[in-house]
Amino acid sequence: LGATDAALESFQAIVSVDPSLFNARANVIRLLWRLDRREEAAGLAQEEINRGSRDENFYVMVITWLNHLNRRDAVTAMLEEAARLFPTNSTFAHLAAGMRGDHVESAPNDYIEGVFDSYAESFEKHLLGGLVYRGPGVMARHVEHNLPPSGRFRACLDLGCGTGLMAFVLREIVDRLVGVDISAKMLEEAAEKSLY
Questions:
Q1: Helix 22-34 vs helix 38-50: crossing angle, to nearest 10
Q2: Are strands 153-159 and 174-180 parallel, antiparallel or unpaired?
Q3: What is the pLDDT of residues 89-123, one digit of tens each?
Q4: Phi, psi (deg, nearest 5) at residue 2
Q5: What is the 8-class DSSP label of residue 152?
Q6: Residues 156-189: b if buried by 16+ CB within 10 A, e if exposed
Q7: Full-prediction pTM beyond 0.70?
Q8: Would you say 61 and 44 are in contact if contact means Cβ atoms under 8 Å apart?
Q9: C-alpha distances out from residue 105 to 77, 89, 102, 157, 178, Å
Q10: How far apart, in whole angstroms, are the C-alpha atoms of residue 135 and residue 141?
Q11: DSSP H helices in 18-156
């Protein structure tokens, strides 16, 4: 047996002794998913929801899985239920509206922050490698054509600075550079560059 199989057997044994332990039941479901027994995991997850689970993170996990399995109707229903159960989490309501096809003016700040926080560590690799992002170079050419006579700006505010990709370009022509972003994790990545 592999470590995941052994862990699954252990948690299944725990659940057989005490079926009231939510964390043990949730770990069985997670491990089934990890072992590519996804239909079984999704079925048990739905049973857990039907049992009355009120664990917000569990809902996020199950919604993510159902989406991965292309169960749009189940995802929409689960998002609606989560929005009702967790009214302070505007992400559920926002995503449910999107699944229904409702017009939404803008995403809630906590949703945007969460997306970029979860993306921060792989952001640059994805942007520069996978997407071949060229934003800083394009902006550098534009800025060069608009430099003041001194050849430098006294200050610059980099709004939505993300991980600080523009800082490499701006640092050379700005006396004071300030980066601002909605995502704390993006700002942590930017701070490691020591350019703001």
A1: 160
A2: parallel
A3: 999 999 999 999 999 889 999 889 988 999 899 99
A4: -80, 170
A5: S
A6: bebeebbbbbbbebbbebbeebebebbbebbbeb
A7: no
A8: no
A9: 22, 18, 10, 26, 29
A10: 10
A11: 22-34, 38-50, 56-68, 72-85, 90-100, 109-124, 135-144
